[in-house]
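Weekly sync, protein design subgroup
Attendees: M.S., D.O., the rotation student, P.L. (late)

Item 1: inverse folding check
M.S. brought a backbone from last month's batch and wanted to see whether the design step gives back something sensible before we order anything. D.O. pointed out we never logged the input encoding, so this time it goes straight into the notes. Structure tokens as presented (243 positions):
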């Protein structure tokens, strides 16, 4: 499998179809495989000295690390490294639900409101979807983290979708990886379920093709996203040097 090596991680340079096939195979093997899809938010955290070490190690050791950012694609191109295909995490997740996961699989989703999960279940009535939403601030409470891990293990899922935001989902993934008996494939998916269920809308296709989906998302929630995107913009030179 071709890889693009950077100082932050080794990016697996494969197509969407190859990624889906690889994840399907991983779901059937022993041990836990972890999938990450770095975007600019993740890159900003990777160069931040205060970011938990579990987060950085997870990106370095992920079974699949897939480019989820047009900006990352362009930065790598300036370094002479060509990304075969940008693979948005939300698109990858939707394709897994639509084309890969079957009624023989067990799904566990960590994070998200019950209302949204019920909507997801109504869309995929043939799939077994288990769900647990840990309380706010759980990642700073060892008891709640342990409870979350136990919930995941109880359902013995071979597809684990971590949707509690970054870096919380990566920390949970790291703790799962440390368990000798954990199996399946864990994906750090952020808000992907919200896009699948229509709770949040992706940008129109022409904006995606124009590489302006970030602008569309920011305009939907400027109070929350403008400061984040502005901070990421300021960090681009440092991110470039770190690639």
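Designed sequence read out in the meeting:
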């Amino acid at each position: 499998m071709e890889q693009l090596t950077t100082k932050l991680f080794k990016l697996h340079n494969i197509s969407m179809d190859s990624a889906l096939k690889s994840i399907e195979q991983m779901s059937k093997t022993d041990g836990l495989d972890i999938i990450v899809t770095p975007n600019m938010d993740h890159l900003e955290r990777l160069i931040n000295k205060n970011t938990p070490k579990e987060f950085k190690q997870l990106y370095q050791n992920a079974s699949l690390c897939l480019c989820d950012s047009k900006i990352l694609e362009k930065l790598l191109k300036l370094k002479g490294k060509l990304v075969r295909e940008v693979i948005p995490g939300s698109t990858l997740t939707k394709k897994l639900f639509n084309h890969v996961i079957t009624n023989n699989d067990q799904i566990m989703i960590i994070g998200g409101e019950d209302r949204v999960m019920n909507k997801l279940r109504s869309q995929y009535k043939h799939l077994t979807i288990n769900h647990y939403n840990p309380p706010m601030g759980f990642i700073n409470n060892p008891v709640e983290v342990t409870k979350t891990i136990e919930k995941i293990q109880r359902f013995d899922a071979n597809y684990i979708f971590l949707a509690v935001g970054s870096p919380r989902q990566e920390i949970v993934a790291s703790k799962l990886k440390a368990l000798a008996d954990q199996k399946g494939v864990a994906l750090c998916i952020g808000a992907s379920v919200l896009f699948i269920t229509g709770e949040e809308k992706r940008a129109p296709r022409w904006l995606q093709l124009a590489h302006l989906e970030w602008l569309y998302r920011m305009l939907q929630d400027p109070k929350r996203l403008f400061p984040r995107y502005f901070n990421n913009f300021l960090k681009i030179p440092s991110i470039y040097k770190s690639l």
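Discussion: The radius of gyration is 17 Å. Residues 17 and 92 are 9 Å apart (CA to CA).
Action: P.L. to compare against the previous round before Friday.
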